[in-house]
Amino acid sequence: MWRWLHPYAKPEVVYHLLGRWLPWVAGAAALILGGGLVWGILFAPADYQQGDSYRIIFIHVPAAMFSMSVYVGLAITALIGRVWQLKMADWALAAIAPVGAVFTFIALFTGAVWGKPMWGTWWEWDARLTSQLILLFLYIGVLALYHAFSDNRTGAKAAGILALVGVINIPIIRYSVEWWNTLHQGATLTVFERPPMANSMLFPLLTCILGFAFLAAALIFHRMRNEILRQELHRPWVKAELGETSKQTEAV
Amino acid sequence: MAMNPRRKKRLLWVVGMVAGVAAALSVILYALSQNIDLFYTPSEVVEGKGKDAVKPTVGQRLRIGGMVVEGSVQRDPKTLEVSFRVTDTGPEVTILYTGILPDLFREGQGIVAQGVMVEPTVMNATEVLAKHDEEYMPPELAEQMKGIKHVNPNQPKAFEGGE
């Protein structure tokens, strides 16, 4: 396995590989997410209780789901970085964390905007909302630690340990609405049960979720390429790469 | 594939650290579980909460969450005063409130009220929030499935005042 993986451990190879995938992933994100949002916001029926206000679900739920999935990815990356000490796993922390932080912020913001007309409040310190806010602080903490040391490896080590310990918060967010009584309702989408949601709303929601998956991947690929360039700035291949790109830009 | 002993040691260290923090945190959350609950249910107000059956005392500030009992909502025609009963599995608690209720407030709806107990089963609420469930469906389907016909989403909503 190592022999097969070995060439991919070179930053230059990863940079080019991600560069080849990026347009496809970004294109899929734009197409699927754009389609899902138009479908959900313009064509899906209004809800029997919440009218049109529920339509924010097409952003809120995917953002909240991937704020957690991206964190699991961050923790796995941190584990690889800590145990196998691959430098690119360290760099990936810096590529992944801001994407998750933005998704978390979107989930909290859309939740507040949705909560005001439906529940009657922007914010309530219930278990779901509070644990999601802690997730945002975890992301910010990982980023702050990563950049807090002049030695990049020390920063990545500290950030990785926080990312790993913070993964405990993920099941707490997931099950907060079941373990404690909260203002937030239970989960609509679960793995084993048919969701209590009409198909005309469910399908655009699932489309948006798929779109968000591609969006997360595209953003992470793009940020990872930037981080590789930043870390390898002094290497000849980066100089050649940047020189080449600027020539291409001039030609265009 | 045999693992390099140094990697194995690091892996054990990391797993041990996460497991340790998880164990500590779960003990804390278990100890605090009653405080993390956002509200008392009406049964807990009447019969007491937890193993020790702690009942809220008159004058205590708390939140109560339950379903609005059908037919219990009484509005004062001249002011914004409203009173209603909430229930979960049997016992009922009366909520008194003055102010604007959220759009989703209606009989049969889940609500969370915050306020002060003025009698063992009567609360003077300063805030009433509406809960909603995890079901989403168009109005026609809701009418078909549940016989619910209480909201017309196209109907203009009443003016919602600021706080």
From TrEMBL, chain A:
It is a multi-pass membrane protein. Keywords: Cell inner membrane, Cell membrane, Cytochrome c-type biogenesis, Membrane, Transmembrane, Transmembrane helix, Transport. One of its GO terms (biological process) is cytochrome complex assembly. Residues 21-184 form the Cytochrome c assembly protein domain. Signal peptide: none annotated. One of its GO terms (molecular function) is heme binding. It is found in: Cell inner membrane; Membrane. Required for the export of heme to the periplasm for the biogenesis of c-type cytochromes. This is Heme exporter protein C.
